[in-house]
Amino acid sequence: MNIPLHLLQSLVAFSDHISLEKAAAALRTTQPTVTRHLQQLQLHIKSPLFESQGKRKVLTPFGVQLVRQIRERLDSLDDIVRTTEIEFGDPRNVTLRVGARTEILKRLFTEIPFDCSVHLLPMSGSSIQHAIESSTVDLAVGKEFQSPSAFVRKRLFEDGFSCVVPQDFLKSAETSLEQWLARCAKFPFAEYAPQVAPIKATLSAAMGGFRLNTQCTVGDWQVIERRVRAGLAWSVIPDSFLPNVYSYRRFPFPLAGRSIFYVYYRKSLRQHAWFRSILESLHRQVESFRHS
Fold it and tell me: In the chain, which residue ranges form alpha helices assigned H by DSSP?
């Protein structure tokens, strides 16, 4: 059985949109063309692909399962084409997909001179791992996990935590740590939900038993950063996020341990001088923000 690829693509488009008109628009063709493709495809396959529900034509259970299998194969074909373009193509014809936390993308990648086009993809930690495992990124920065054989993992930097206060929180830069902590005990505190327990325990010990005046608990560093910048709270924020805040002062010891971040990239990329140049620029950016 030798089924033309465009017939399968029309079936997947019909499954995605459940409308011949919308499927045709997605494929940039006409509705009669899609109809003809589906009719031709049914001639190649003995099992029925479609059934009627009232006035609507929908996929049979067999059709649904077939689309699921075809979509996986089409995604694999897309990945093969992308990998080949990266391996043999001019960087000006390559789009490099980069995944990382929003603050890391801003800090590390916005100043790098890329020879290729770049698509920056803000992601959470779990999304980064999934993106690498599914090959939907070419380069990523995240915490440690077992990467697939097609990717290289290299240690990039350690990220600690620092106390962050509003611009006018302290009038004097010479204020002692004890005075600063006493002031913090009375000022609203914004917590980051996933790390409340270790941060609270360390801060409570450092503040001589003072209880934190918790104002809010959220799971988004950007929300916390905005509250600090607006002068509504103080908080504890990862060092990699600090350039986005208005003013800050650090404790002289780790507040919640340190996280190690790694760079992940396709093995096939490192043979290219243009990509090795990107990695060198990335490491220079890391050194720059470590000393800022």
Answer: 5-17, 20-27, 31-44, 61-88, 102-104, 125-133, 177-186, 196-206, 221-229, 273-290
Q: Is the pLDDT of residue 252 over 50?
A: no
Say which CATH topology domain 161-244 has.
D-Maltodextrin-Binding Protein; domain 2 (3.40.190)
Q: Closest Cα partner for 146 from 159, 158, 156, 132? A: 132
In angstroms, the CA 9 to CA 67 distance is 9
Query: In CATH terms, are 89-158+259-290 and 161-244 the same topology?
Result: yes
CATH number of 89-158+259-290: 3.40.190.10
Is the pTM higher than 0.85? The answer reads: no
pLDDT (tens digit, 9 = 90+) per residue, 141-186? Answer: 998 888 888 899 999 988 877 777 777 766 555 566 667 677 777 7
Cα distances (angstroms) measured from residue 280 to each of 119, 202, 277, 283:
19, 36, 5, 5
Query: Could you tell me the fold of the domain covering 5-78?
Result: Arc Repressor Mutant, subunit A (1.10.10)
